[in-house]
Amino acid sequence: MVVENFPRAVGAMTKDQHETNPTGLAGEQAPSGSGGKLLELDERRRTSLGKIGRQQDRRYLVTELPDGTVILRPAVVLSEAELRLLSDPDRLARVDAALADPESAVPWTPRTPGRPARAS
After folding, report:
1. C-alpha–C-alpha distance, residues 39 and 11, integer Å
2. pLDDT tens for each residue of 55-81
3. In the chain, at which end, N or C, are there fewer CB atoms within 10 A of the end residue's CB?
4. SS3 (DSSP) at 7
5. Who contacts 55 (Cβ-Cβ below 8 Å, separation ≥6)?
């Protein structure tokens, strides 16, 4: 499989095919300076991604298209709490306001077992 710089991934092709259509995709040209890299799978269909992608990317979402094209997109894992926060513009605005003016923030006090939560 020939893998170009993100986000393109195309099947292996002959040299003649590559010269006439470097990306292997209809109507598209290869980005300037984006030489492809050949990845070979071992007998267990594994390969190393050590020489492609950015060093800081450790997780990827993988999409496989019907024609066999494989697309790797850098990904992060979020907790449910982080996802709720990032999905709520009002909460984000309150966090931004608190970060901009820490003195205005209400201090957090841990709850004591058996004691009701403080009313907000």
Report:
1. 11
2. 899 899 999 999 999 999 999 999 999
3. C
4. coil
5. none
Tokens of 66: 């019907």
Query: CA-based diameter of the chain, in Å?
Result: 76
Q: Residue written as tokens 């306001």? A: 97
Say whether 73 sits in a helix, a strand or coil: strand
On whether the CB atoms of residues 53 and 72 are closer than 8 A, the answer is yes
Listed as ranges, residues in the chain with pLDDT below 50 are: 1-15, 17-18, 26-30, 32
Encoding tokens for residue 94?
């309150």
Phi, psi of 10 (to 5 degrees): -135, 160
The residues pairing with 81 across neighbouring beta strands, listed in sequence order, are none
Structural contact between residues 98 and 104, judged by C-beta atoms closer than 8 angstroms? yes
CB of 58 closer than 8 Å to CB of 50 = no
Q: Rounded to an integer, what distance in angstroms lies between the CA atom of residue 98 and that of residue 11?
A: 51
Burial state string for 44-82 with b = 16 or more CB within 10 A and e = fewer than 16: eeeeeeeeeeeeeeeeeeeeeeeeebeebeeeeeeeeee
